[in-house]
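Q: Given only this backbone (200 positions), what sequence would you predict?
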Protein backbone atom coordinates (compact mmCIF):
# COMPACT_ATOMS: atom_id res chain seq x y z
CA UNK A 1 0.00 0.00 0.00
CA UNK A 2 1.35 3.40 -0.94
CA UNK A 3 0.28 6.80 0.34
CA UNK A 4 1.87 10.13 -0.52
CA UNK A 5 1.62 13.07 1.87
CA UNK A 6 -0.65 10.96 4.05
CA UNK A 7 -3.25 10.71 1.29
CA UNK A 8 -4.54 7.64 -0.45
CA UNK A 9 -5.18 7.41 -4.18
CA UNK A 10 -6.43 4.79 -6.56
CA UNK A 11 -8.89 4.69 -9.45
CA UNK A 12 -11.86 4.28 -7.11
CA UNK A 13 -10.88 6.99 -4.63
CA UNK A 14 -10.38 9.34 -7.57
CA UNK A 15 -14.13 9.28 -8.15
CA UNK A 16 -15.29 9.55 -4.51
CA UNK A 17 -16.11 13.25 -5.07
CA UNK A 18 -18.81 12.22 -7.56
CA UNK A 19 -20.51 10.32 -4.75
CA UNK A 20 -20.09 13.08 -2.18
CA UNK A 21 -21.34 15.83 -4.49
CA UNK A 22 -24.53 13.83 -5.11
CA UNK A 23 -25.62 13.85 -1.45
CA UNK A 24 -28.99 15.63 -1.27
CA UNK A 25 -29.54 18.50 1.14
CA UNK A 26 -30.91 17.36 4.48
CA UNK A 27 -29.89 13.72 4.07
CA UNK A 28 -30.12 11.89 7.40
CA UNK A 29 -29.24 8.28 6.56
CA UNK A 30 -26.71 6.88 4.09
CA UNK A 31 -25.78 3.34 3.10
CA UNK A 32 -22.38 2.42 1.66
CA UNK A 33 -22.77 -0.85 -0.26
CA UNK A 34 -19.54 -2.84 -0.29
CA UNK A 35 -17.89 -0.47 2.17
CA UNK A 36 -14.61 -2.40 2.47
CA UNK A 37 -12.46 -0.85 5.18
CA UNK A 38 -14.76 2.15 5.37
CA UNK A 39 -12.99 5.03 3.62
CA UNK A 40 -16.06 6.21 1.69
CA UNK A 41 -18.35 5.57 4.65
CA UNK A 42 -16.21 7.87 6.79
CA UNK A 43 -16.33 10.54 4.09
CA UNK A 44 -20.12 10.19 3.91
CA UNK A 45 -20.33 10.57 7.69
CA UNK A 46 -18.90 14.09 7.45
CA UNK A 47 -22.09 15.11 5.62
CA UNK A 48 -24.74 12.65 6.83
CA UNK A 49 -25.59 12.03 10.53
CA UNK A 50 -26.25 8.28 10.28
CA UNK A 51 -24.15 6.09 8.00
CA UNK A 52 -24.22 2.32 7.60
CA UNK A 53 -21.55 0.37 5.73
CA UNK A 54 -22.13 -3.22 4.67
CA UNK A 55 -19.67 -5.73 3.24
CA UNK A 56 -19.34 -9.49 2.89
CA UNK A 57 -15.61 -9.50 3.63
CA UNK A 58 -14.93 -10.00 7.33
CA UNK A 59 -11.33 -8.78 7.25
CA UNK A 60 -12.39 -5.51 5.63
CA UNK A 61 -15.17 -4.97 8.18
CA UNK A 62 -12.70 -5.68 11.00
CA UNK A 63 -10.40 -2.98 9.60
CA UNK A 64 -13.31 -0.55 9.26
CA UNK A 65 -14.31 -1.06 12.88
CA UNK A 66 -10.79 -0.15 14.04
CA UNK A 67 -11.41 3.49 13.09
CA UNK A 68 -12.73 5.83 15.80
CA UNK A 69 -15.96 6.80 14.08
CA UNK A 70 -19.67 6.18 14.66
CA UNK A 71 -20.39 4.50 11.33
CA UNK A 72 -22.44 1.31 11.76
CA UNK A 73 -20.46 -1.41 9.99
CA UNK A 74 -22.41 -4.55 9.10
CA UNK A 75 -20.92 -7.87 8.04
CA UNK A 76 -23.48 -9.31 5.66
CA UNK A 77 -24.91 -9.72 2.18
CA UNK A 78 -26.41 -6.48 0.92
CA UNK A 79 -28.88 -8.37 -1.27
CA UNK A 80 -30.48 -10.24 1.64
CA UNK A 81 -29.74 -8.20 4.78
CA UNK A 82 -33.06 -7.11 6.36
CA UNK A 83 -32.83 -3.36 5.84
CA UNK A 84 -36.17 -1.58 5.93
CA UNK A 85 -37.36 -0.66 2.43
CA UNK A 86 -37.19 3.05 1.55
CA UNK A 87 -35.07 3.80 4.63
CA UNK A 88 -32.03 5.66 3.22
CA UNK A 89 -31.62 9.15 1.80
CA UNK A 90 -28.37 8.13 0.09
CA UNK A 91 -27.27 4.77 -1.24
CA UNK A 92 -23.66 4.80 -2.43
CA UNK A 93 -21.57 2.09 -4.04
CA UNK A 94 -18.02 2.13 -5.38
CA UNK A 95 -16.53 -0.82 -7.27
CA UNK A 96 -19.10 -3.22 -5.81
CA UNK A 97 -21.87 -3.79 -8.33
CA UNK A 98 -19.75 -6.15 -10.46
CA UNK A 99 -19.46 -8.47 -7.43
CA UNK A 100 -23.19 -9.31 -7.73
CA UNK A 101 -25.85 -9.66 -10.37
CA UNK A 102 -26.01 -6.08 -11.60
CA UNK A 103 -29.76 -5.97 -12.26
CA UNK A 104 -30.57 -7.44 -8.85
CA UNK A 105 -28.16 -5.05 -7.15
CA UNK A 106 -29.56 -1.96 -8.88
CA UNK A 107 -33.13 -2.94 -8.04
CA UNK A 108 -32.21 -3.52 -4.39
CA UNK A 109 -30.47 -0.14 -4.15
CA UNK A 110 -33.50 1.53 -5.75
CA UNK A 111 -35.87 -0.10 -3.28
CA UNK A 112 -33.85 0.98 -0.24
CA UNK A 113 -34.03 4.67 -1.20
CA UNK A 114 -36.62 6.97 0.26
CA UNK A 115 -38.59 9.08 -2.24
CA UNK A 116 -36.35 11.98 -3.14
CA UNK A 117 -33.25 10.05 -2.11
CA UNK A 118 -30.17 9.72 -4.30
CA UNK A 119 -28.37 6.65 -5.59
CA UNK A 120 -24.72 7.28 -6.50
CA UNK A 121 -22.60 4.53 -8.04
CA UNK A 122 -19.08 4.29 -9.36
CA UNK A 123 -18.44 0.96 -10.99
CA UNK A 124 -16.30 -1.22 -13.20
CA UNK A 125 -17.45 -2.79 -16.45
CA UNK A 126 -15.86 -4.87 -19.17
CA UNK A 127 -14.38 -3.25 -22.22
CA UNK A 128 -15.26 -4.53 -25.67
CA UNK A 129 -12.47 -4.76 -28.20
CA UNK A 130 -11.47 -3.25 -30.51
CA UNK A 131 -13.96 -0.42 -29.96
CA UNK A 132 -12.78 0.44 -26.45
CA UNK A 133 -9.05 0.11 -27.10
CA UNK A 134 -8.29 3.84 -27.72
CA UNK A 135 -10.23 4.91 -24.62
CA UNK A 136 -8.62 2.21 -22.47
CA UNK A 137 -5.12 3.12 -23.63
CA UNK A 138 -5.80 6.77 -22.78
CA UNK A 139 -7.09 5.70 -19.36
CA UNK A 140 -4.00 3.62 -18.67
CA UNK A 141 -1.75 6.54 -19.61
CA UNK A 142 -3.60 8.98 -17.36
CA UNK A 143 -3.74 6.44 -14.53
CA UNK A 144 0.02 5.90 -14.78
CA UNK A 145 0.55 9.66 -14.45
CA UNK A 146 -1.67 9.83 -11.37
CA UNK A 147 0.15 6.91 -9.74
CA UNK A 148 3.51 8.54 -10.38
CA UNK A 149 2.32 11.73 -8.69
CA UNK A 150 0.16 10.30 -5.91
CA UNK A 151 1.18 6.70 -5.32
CA UNK A 152 -1.39 3.93 -5.39
CA UNK A 153 -3.25 2.60 -2.37
CA UNK A 154 -4.24 -1.07 -2.55
CA UNK A 155 -7.57 -1.77 -0.87
CA UNK A 156 -7.82 -4.95 1.24
CA UNK A 157 -11.08 -6.20 -0.28
CA UNK A 158 -11.45 -9.17 -2.66
CA UNK A 159 -11.14 -8.49 -6.39
CA UNK A 160 -13.45 -9.73 -9.14
CA UNK A 161 -11.93 -9.54 -12.63
CA UNK A 162 -12.95 -9.25 -15.37
CA UNK A 163 -16.29 -7.56 -14.67
CA UNK A 164 -19.14 -9.68 -16.05
CA UNK A 165 -21.10 -6.78 -17.59
CA UNK A 166 -19.95 -4.50 -20.41
CA UNK A 167 -20.27 -0.70 -20.41
CA UNK A 168 -23.18 -0.71 -22.91
CA UNK A 169 -24.94 -3.38 -20.86
CA UNK A 170 -24.58 -1.26 -17.69
CA UNK A 171 -25.95 1.78 -19.48
CA UNK A 172 -28.95 -0.25 -20.65
CA UNK A 173 -29.58 -1.69 -17.18
CA UNK A 174 -29.45 1.75 -15.61
CA UNK A 175 -31.93 3.11 -18.16
CA UNK A 176 -34.30 0.18 -17.57
CA UNK A 177 -34.16 -0.05 -13.76
CA UNK A 178 -33.51 3.60 -12.92
CA UNK A 179 -35.48 5.64 -15.48
CA UNK A 180 -34.05 9.12 -15.81
CA UNK A 181 -30.70 8.18 -14.27
CA UNK A 182 -27.49 9.81 -15.44
CA UNK A 183 -24.90 7.36 -16.75
CA UNK A 184 -21.40 8.53 -17.54
CA UNK A 185 -18.32 6.66 -18.64
CA UNK A 186 -15.06 7.95 -17.17
CA UNK A 187 -11.52 7.96 -18.45
CA UNK A 188 -9.98 5.98 -15.57
CA UNK A 189 -11.79 2.77 -16.52
CA UNK A 190 -14.91 3.49 -14.49
CA UNK A 191 -18.53 4.51 -15.04
CA UNK A 192 -20.88 6.40 -12.76
CA UNK A 193 -24.65 6.36 -12.30
CA UNK A 194 -26.61 8.94 -10.34
CA UNK A 195 -30.36 8.80 -9.83
CA UNK A 196 -32.87 10.62 -7.68
CA UNK A 197 -35.87 8.52 -6.68
CA UNK A 198 -39.11 10.22 -7.68
CA UNK A 199 -41.32 11.61 -4.94
CA UNK A 200 -44.52 9.68 -4.31
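A: Predicted residues:
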Amino acid sequence: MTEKNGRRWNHNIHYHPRILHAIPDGAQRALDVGCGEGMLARELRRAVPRVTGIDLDGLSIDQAREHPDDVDYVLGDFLTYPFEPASFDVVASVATLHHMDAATGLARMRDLLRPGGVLAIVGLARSTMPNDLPRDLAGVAVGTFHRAMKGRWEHPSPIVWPPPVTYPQMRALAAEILPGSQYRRHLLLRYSITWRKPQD
